[in-house]
Amino acid sequence: MASDSHTWNLVFLQLLLEELGHRVTNLGACVPDDVLVEECRRRQPDLIVLSSVNGHGHHDGRRVLPALRACPELLETPVVIGGKLGITGAADGDDTAARGLLAAGFDGVFTDVGAVDAFKVFVQRLAAGVPA
């Protein structure tokens, strides 16, 4: 996302998805919204994964999701977000942010201790044809 400059977490996610048998395009850190949307339109991925560690994921996610959903070719593409979504550091803050992001239209939100395992299950279900 545009405000998030982490790299190692993105590499971890890429390797995890590749280990699960998927081809990954990692756009890197600090991707401007318009670049993210255009690359997704051009590539038409099976899944869009947004990740945040700086605590602005809730705001960035709510801002970029409508732009992704405004593209007819991405309307049905599952979009998920994970990581640190708020700056309070409190688990209940992430729970509140997660509920808001799901209500805004994200297909999955992964924030807690079991987030990696839950994300893996989500990806495996999509690969098996189970709708998000």
UniProtKB/TrEMBL annotation:
Residues 1-132 form the B12-binding domain. One of its GO terms (molecular function) is metal ion binding. It comes from the Bacteria. PROSITE patterns: B12_BINDING. Pfam families: B12-binding. This is Methylaspartate mutase.
